[in-house]
Fold this sequence. Notes:
The protein is α/β, with parallel strands linked by helices. The protein has 14 helices and 18 strands. The protein folds into three domains: 4-136 and 304-324, 3-Layer(aba) Sandwich (Rossmann fold); 151-300, Dihydrodipicolinate Reductase, domain 2 (2-Layer Sandwich); 343-427, Alpha-Beta Plaits (2-Layer Sandwich), CATH 3.30.70.260. It is elongated, with a radius of gyration of 24 Å. NADP nicotinamide-adenine-dinucleotide phosphate binds at residues 10-16, 44-47, 65, 80-82, 86, 104-106, 131, 135, 302-303, 307.
Amino acid sequence: MKPTINIGIIGFGTVGCGALKILQENKDAIELKVGSSICVKRIADIDIERKRPVQYDPAILTTDAYQIINDPEIDIVVELIGGVNPAGKFILDAIKNGKQIVSANKELIAREGHGLLLEAGKRKQDFFFEASVGGGIPIIRPLKICLAGNRIEEIIGIVNGTTNFILTKMAQEGRDFGEVLAQAQSLGYAEADPTNDVEGHDAAYKIAILASIAFNSRVNVQEVYREGITKLSERDMSYARELGYCVKLLAIAKQHNGSMEIRVHPAFLPQSHPLASVNDVYNGIFVRGDAVGDVMFYGQGAGPMAAGSAVVGDIIDVARDINCGATGRICCTCFEDKAALSMDDVIAKYYIRMQTADQPGVLAGIASIFGENEVSIASVLQKGRGENGEAEIVWITHEVRELNFRTALDAIAKLPVVAQVSNWIRVED
Ligand SMILES: NC(=O)c1ccc[n+]([C@@H]2O[C@H](COP(=O)([O-])OP(=O)(O)OC[C@H]3O[C@@H](n4cnc5c(N)ncnc54)[C@H](OP(=O)(O)O)[C@@H]3O)[C@@H](O)[C@H]2O)c1
């Protein structure tokens, strides 16, 4: 047992402050769990003048991350700056210096995690990143440990709180995307530049990480099919409600014989699905394993204390490993090389909303193109004349290969009686 385990935190922002606060407030219990005293020896940040909402000794602050990375007394380096550079270099140099690593950095883990994990594993060092997906929700350790005996068949997650807040408000208050985004920004739930969240990049990083662990095969983030929520209208939300669905931004990973299907997009989800009740900024992750069946994880996906909780959990786990001489115990498990399925070959159901001429024969003409492409229809809803004397038709298909669906839709959009295909959304049953 080491009497004291020294930590260096790089990045004293939202999560850095949360983690430090938890280490201070729960110090006694944490140290009893570990069997050592936990000392935050140094904290690095670009700006060390700004006041933080946590107590700290200004003498431990530095602007030079290498005062942590090169300090022989520091056991655990906690990277909380985000982004790929220089975070990746800091972590690699810290691993080479024999440090155990804790990080919350989804973008770095999704893009370069494989190499860094191999590097840490080679040296029998820990590299934990629980906060990188689901904030405070335990999901990485459950996949790596508790569910390790399963063949994971699918993961469906609501893993981005900002978009979930926007979609919840659009559905509950009948407001459009732009209006709710502005509210989310004023409440601090969305960034001034919301692209990373609303275009699905953040969710793509997270599902790439989860799928890599679940399917034992590295998922490159470029292989994740991605669509954001910006094209959703209040009208789509209202049809979803009428048809017994809600609309969520889903991060989906499924494995089929030797291949993986990884995608992020808005989807109609039945109101009876366990994820349908995950609202506001909350996250939920649904996992299906061949042995365990269905399990679901729910909680706060962001925030200083929620993400800090996951970071401190990792610190405690590393500290225990140090005390048992067991670091490097959980290493990279990407021992297979599965191909990513093309979206053309994905099988899904679809919702389509279109404006057409309001005249006899229109439905039959469209249905015949669907039929020629093997798209069979589960239900059709036609609303009366719109402002221009047009009809609005909503279709829900049965399961069909995406290439067939898109081919049919391209042909339908060219029909003279079709004024516009306003939107189409996958349906996840
Ligand atoms: N916020 C959440 O709820 C949450 C949840 C889960 C995971 N995460 C992840 O946690 C990480 C940190 O997020 P955060 O929200 O805490 O970010 P943040 O509030 O922006 O904090 C990052 C801090 O790191 C500092 N920094 C940037 N580059 C640095 C460098 N080269 N050397 C030293 N310090 C540097 C920043 O300083 P300046 O501000 O001066 O640039 C800032 O104080 C990210 O990877 C994020 O994805 C966040």
